[in-house]
Amino acid sequence: MGRINFRLKLKLLSVHFVWKRKHRHRIFKKKKTSASETREAMAMKMVWKSGGKSDKPRPQPRRNPFDTDEEKDDQAVLKPTDPNPGDSGPPPLVKDDLNQLFESLQSQGDHLAEAGKYREALSKWEGALSIMPENEIIHEQKAQVLLELGDAWNSLKAATRATQLKPSWPEAWVTLGRAQLNYGEPDSAIDSFDKALALKADYEEAKRDRQTAMHLVQKRKLLHSSGLSANKRRFVVADKVENSLEDS
User: TPR repeat ranges (predicted)?
Assistant: First the structure.
């Protein structure tokens, strides 16, 4: 039972050789194909290493678990150059409201001054100047009212400011000349009246006030020639102006 029949053994060998012949082509073909695939795989690997860096996918940033959708929306809407909505300036209507308030205060001051309520008028005009400090009209009106109140120094300052803001305004130069007369500076007043006449040659008030200032200068020269001291040469001109106007 342990021995194999010789004839059966030959038959088994013949079957083995027939199977090898039958499948030889398939075996070699498979080996050849495997070698080709290996070469192609190596070639692809070399190509990827040399020029495939740009095709390599970049890692995506990890999402911060603490970020909310609302913050992302804010970042998408607000650009780096966009102003912060919390730092926005005043509404556009504020400027118009200030202009209306300025005009209202100026008008109230005008009516009060016409009614002889000079201090109340000054209060309204000061409020208007706090809104628009470079308004030459109110500075000139202040100078006139301060002259009525006998405050020659502050009148002189207000009139000077009016001429600085608008040098081409002859009325401001006349008001300045009158303030200089009341402050005891007729020489400076003459210069102011001359500037007013240079801007408006037919300005009758400037001509009359200039004559008054010239008359006061002549009187001062007479006092100087009479030997009065330097302190007595400077005198209050307000009364002199009234006397000169009465004489003329």
Answer: 102-135, 170-203
Is residue 236 helix, strand or coil?
coil
Whether 203 contacts 193, CB under 8 Å:
no
* DSSP-derived secondary structure for 40-84: HHHHHHHHHHHH-STTSPPPPPPPPTT--HHHHHHHHH--TTSPP
Structural domain total, the chain: 1
Q: Read off the DSSP letter of residue 3.
A: S
77-131 pLDDT tens trace: 445 444 555 555 555 557 788 899 999 999 999 999 999 999 999 999 999 999 9
Enclosing domain of residue 231: 152-247
Establish if 172 belongs to a structural domain: yes
CB atoms within 10 A of CB 141: 21
Q: Which residues contact 144 (CB under 8 A, 6 or more apart)?
A: 113, 155, 175
Residue 101 falls inside a structural domain: no
Interatomic CA distance for residues 194 and 104, integer angstroms:
35
Find the CATH number of the domain harbouring 216: 1.25.40.10
Question: Helix, strand, coil % (nearest 5) of the chain?
Answer: 75, 0, 25
pTM over 0.90: no
E strands along 162-204, which residues? none
The answer to whether position 116 is within a domain reads no
What CA–CA distance (Å, rounded) separates 43 from 51? 12
Cα separations in angstroms, 102 against 82, 127, 129, 187: 34, 8, 8, 36
Three-state secondary-structure class, residue 160: helix
